[in-house]
Amino acid sequence: MKLTNLLSVAFFAFIGGNLRYLIGQALGLVGTLSVNLGGCFLLSFLTYYLFDRRHVPSWLTTGLGTGLIGAFTTFSTFSLELSKLLLAHAWGAASAYFLLSSVGGLTSVWLGYLLAQRLRGLNR
């Protein structure tokens, strides 16, 4: 385990966690959905565009992927908010939130992949 990787994860997690907190405070449930979908897109884009390139140092890929995106997105908050909706018998809202998060997450990953492939094609 490299010290540079650990420091990079800590640094970027500080940024990602604070961004998530600020967005969550400003937007509530919509904020959680936004950061999770945005994180899906960003991780996919970074993975297929930036991380696949051999000249990107491991401390940066680890810091951005695990630190920034890992701290920015939040499965635990998604699960808690979904549970609150279910406990409140808000079946429609819970279903919509679950579907938007699941289908939206996969769609965001796909869009990040497509953008990365397009940009890589332009840079050849």
Cα Rg? 16 Å
Please indicate the percent range of residues in DSSP E strands (runs of 2 or more).
Answer: under 5%
SSE-based structural type: mainly alpha
Mean pLDDT: 92
How is the topology of this model organized?
Elements: H1 3-27, H2 29-51, H3 58-72, H4 75-87, H5 91-122
Helix pairs in contact: 1-2, 1-3, 2-3, 2-4, 2-5, 4-5
Commentary on this structure:
This protein has five helices and no strands. It is an all-alpha fold and 124 residues long. It is flat. The model has no long low-confidence stretch (mean pLDDT 92). InterPro entries: FluC (IPR003691).
Sum up the structure in keywords.
124 residues; mainly alpha; 5 helices; fluoride channel activity
Quick overview of this protein structure:
The protein has 124 residues and is mainly α. It is built from five helices and no strands.
